[in-house]
Amino acid sequence: MNWGSAAEFFAMGGHGFYVWGSFGACVLFMIAEPILASGRQKGILRTLRRERIAEDLEKDTK
Amino acid sequence: MSNRIINWFKFASPQSFYPLAGKMIPWFWALAVAFGIAGLWISFFVAPTDAQQGEGYRIIFVHVPASWMSMFIYLIMAAWAGLGLALKTRLSGMMAQALAPTGALMALLSLWTGALWGKPMWGTWWVWDARLTSELILFFLYIGFIALQAAIDDPRRADKAGAILALVGVVNIPIIYFSVKWWNTLHQGASVSLTKSPSMAQTMLWGMLIMALAFWMYSIAVALMRVRAIILERESHSDWVKELREVKS
After folding, report:
1. In a domain, B43, yes or no
2. pTM for the full model?
3. What is the chain B residue with the closest CA to A28?
């Protein structure tokens, strides 16, 4: 174990800003990207469902 | 044997790849999270303090995997693009398109973590040396690929134009990789030579490899998520998409 206390852990021997800036950016982007990808999937599914409903309505009125 | 060959061709069609990708995604997420937790544990609690760089060197555990992935994803993307150009398979272009944003993200993370590592160790965020500049060019190649494809309405022509750009850009990958050997740069050579004691190099190497596996699994998972959306977008007027359970309900 490298760390005596939580404060020491977060300080990273004076390099806290750089270490947490790096790991933080990675975690942040790697959470954001799948959210965006799943949003894209939901978006196209919503469009497809809407198109399907429109087609069904068209059939009914004929 | 012949069965196996037929199966591969079967999965090369978007229609059969779409459900297969859906089944694979949770497994790759599980692996990504498992390797990620193990890698972070090694990064912060197993790997000891570096004799020269103190705790700042721990950036290596995200910097190296991100850099590796940025180069590797580019090669895979170019391979899919080239395959699409040669065989005119529909799925290839979609794969290349799905990989580009993840590759761009990896290049960005590589540059970002590199800057945050360079500032305390070299005293500067950025230098125009061979390694850093060629990685920046890789990032621009990804952005160029995405922009070029977005600018062309017809997906098949977009794939073709993107494939040519991707294939020409492959020349940059060996330049990045060998830049630290070919030119005198501020960037260090092999990452493992950082340390003196062999036992430390061992834990560092393991940490890096496990983190690289986590990044790898993550990239596959998120690219599969994106390719599923792209398949639906491009095949939206085909009958199989209209018959999908998630569209019908």
Report:
1. yes
2. 0.90
3. B109
